[in-house]
Amino acid sequence: MTVEAMVEPESGAIGVDRLLAAGPDARWAQHATRFGALDAAAAAPTLLAELEASGLGGRGGAGFAAWRKLAATLEAGRRPGARPVVIANGSEGEPLSHKDATLLRHAPHLVIDGLLAAAAAVGASDAYLYAAEPGLEAVRAAAAERADAARIRFVAAPDAFIAGQATAVVNAIENGVALPRDHTRRLSESGLRGRPTLLHNVETLAQLALVARYGAAWFRAVGTADDPGTRLVTIAGDVALPQVLEVAGGTRIAEVLRAAGADTSRLAAVLVGGYHGAWLPADALDAPLSPAGLAPFGAHPGAGVLLALDRTRCGVEATAGIVSYLAAQSARQCGPCRFGLPALAETWNRLAYASHDSGLAARAWELTDTVDGRGACAHPDGTARMVRSAQRVFADDLRLHAHGGCARAAR
Amino acid sequence: MTRLDPRGASPDAPVPAARLHIDWTRCDGRGLCTELLPELLDRDEWGYPIARSLSDRSDVPVPPELEQAALDAVTLCPVIALRLTRR
Questions:
Q1: What is the pTM assigned to this prediction?
Q2: For domain B28-86, is the CATH number 3.30.70.20?
Q3: CB burial string A199-215: b at 16+ within 10 A, e below
C-alpha cells in the first residue's frame, strides 16, 4: 500500500468529497496533485485483504462484496493456462442514473487506477473499459495522459437498459452484441472467452483505487459500520436540483433528498435503486441509504438512484410508466420476459388509466410471479421486485383505482 | 462448492443434487420437457416451462427418481435448451 497523499475527508453539507476530490474535469495534473500516482504492482499483494477489511460493496446494483469477486477470480486464475481478465463496467443503462457518467468525466484517472490495481491483484493479462459515450471518450483521453494505461482496451456500450447486465458486457466485448447470454458458471470462473473474469462497476473500481492507496481503516473512517465509505447517488424526479452527490454510507434518505432541494413533506414515495429497485413509502424516508437500512422495505441502494415522487403525482401511473419502459427494453431473447413484461405493462396501464376492473390487481400479481426468475439475466427479476414494492406501497391507491379513483393530492 | 469433476471428490462424498438448467435464450416453448417432467414443470400461458417450485426456476432441482426423465428431456429438447448440472 502506498500512502503518498493522505486525503482527509472534507465534510460538505451532508457528505464527503472522496472520489471527486481532485475537482471537476480532473486531468492527470489535478489527479496526481490530489491523490499521487498509484503503484498497482506494489499495492497488489495486500489489496485483497484490504478490500475485505474495507467492507466495500459493489456499486453497480447488486451490491455484492467487492473482495469476493476478486478472490474468486484469483482462485480461478490458478487453473493451468487460465489468464484472468478485468472489466470496468460503466455502461449505466438505467436512464435515471448519471453517477457513472459523472465519475468518468470528473475522475477518470481514479477509475483507471482501480482497473489497473485490480488487474495487478488478479494477475490479469487484459483490461477493458466498457462505457457509453461521452464517458468512454473521457477515460480514453485520460489514459492517453499516462504511460501505464496503454494496455486498456475501450469498448463502446450501446444506450440500452440491459447493456450493463454482466453477461451482456462480456458478450459485447467478445462478439459485439450487448445482449445477456445464458450461463451456468460465474464470470469469475468462466467469462470472456472462457477466461476467469473480474467485472466491476467503475465506481467500485474507483473506490478500490482509494482502498489500494489509503487502506481499509481510512476507507471505514467515513460511513457506518455496516455501510462504510461513500457512495455516489443520483437524485432525480420531483426535487428542485436533480444532481449526483457523493454521500457518506448510511446517510438518511430524507437528508440526501433535501440536499437536492426536495421538500420531503411533499413526497408520496421514493423509488430507491432505480427501475429495478423498490418504492419506499413517504413515512420510511428516515431509513439509511444502506443495504441493512433498506432491507426491511425489500429495497437496496442498487446503483444509488433516488427518484422522488411528489404527492400530486400518482404512484400507480408512475409505476405503469416504468413497467412500460422496462417491457420495451426486454432483449426479447427469453420467452417469459418477451411476452410477460408487455402483458404486465398492459395490466398496469389498465390499472392506472382504465380500471373499474377488480380482477386486474390479481392479474398483475399473477404475471409478476410468472416472470420472476425466468430469464438469462436479471431483467424480469428486477422488474418483479419493483412491481411488488409498488403493490405494497401503493396498495390503497390501487384499491381506489379499481373503483375509478386515485390517491394523488390536489395540490 | 461441489463440482461435477469427479477427480476431487472422495468416493464416499454424496452425489450432489442434479438441477435442470433452462437456457431461456434458446427455449421456444415446445413443451416436450413439461410432458416428460410433469412433477417438476408446468407450462405458462405462452407455453414456456415453469417450475412448480417458486425458487431456482432457471435451475430446477431434480430429485434422484426423476433424473432419468430429466436426462430424456435434455436429450429430446428440439432446441437444446436444457442441461443437467450438479453443483
A1: 0.92
A2: yes
A3: bbbbbbbbbbbbbbbbb
